[in-house]
Write a structure and sequence with these properties.
It is a single chain. The protein is mostly beta strands and about 80 residues long. The chain has a domain of about 40 residues. The protein has a four-stranded mixed beta sheet. A hairpin with a 5-residue loop joins strand 1 and strand 2. It is elongated and about 60 Å long. The structure holds zinc ion (ZN). The site of zinc ion has 6 residues, from loops.
């Protein structure tokens, strides 16, 4: 007997399984020559890629250069790089 129930997609790095599948994850366009846009939150000290689970509706989008200038450090979850 074959069990098809084992074919559930699972994210091993996420300690809390997300209730909703992230199928339509937005990703930055590869054709943009500008510095990558990152997002910072009012209460946080990290900057994030677009689509990171820590990015909220109130997050502010700035350049990665500006984020580092303001003392933000890269998020360890979404791992943004210059
Ligand atoms: Zn992040």
């Amino acid at each position: 007997m074959i069990l098809f129930f084992d074919l559930v997609i699972f994210v091993p790095t996420d300690p809390v399984p997300s209730p909703s599948p992230t199928i339509s994850t937005p990703r930055p366009s590869p054709t943009i020559h500008q510095l990558p846009m990152v997002y910072v939150t009012e209460s946080g000290e990290k900057y994030h890629r677009p689509g990171c689970r820590y990015v909220t509706d109130s997050a502010e989008g700035i350049s990665i250069e500006e984020a580092e200038y303001q003392g933000y450090t890269p998020c360890t979850v979404c791992d943004p790089h210059p």
